[in-house]
Amino acid sequence: MGKNNFFPGPDHGRGRSRNGVTPVIEGVFLMTKDRIIPYEELDDYCECCLEPLSYDATYDSAYCAGCNEWREETCTDPKCQFCTDRPKRPFDRG
What we know:
This protein has no helices and six strands. By secondary structure, the chain is mainly β.
């Protein structure tokens, strides 16, 4: 994975103002792939490719379509209605 840069919001970066207007956006962000992701939303993105995660209600699990990998482990309950028949990869539904 490439280098990721976290940037503090204007409050820590001594927010520069333009024409006397202080920037409204505050917080910590990840800037990557021409997009800015707020720190609080990083759990909604793939940890490998940083694309937004998808959700499969059939298996009650998040996955990355780009990587074709589940981003949640299966549970240990052998009778779980979601995990028992879950394929190894999201698009391997034979």
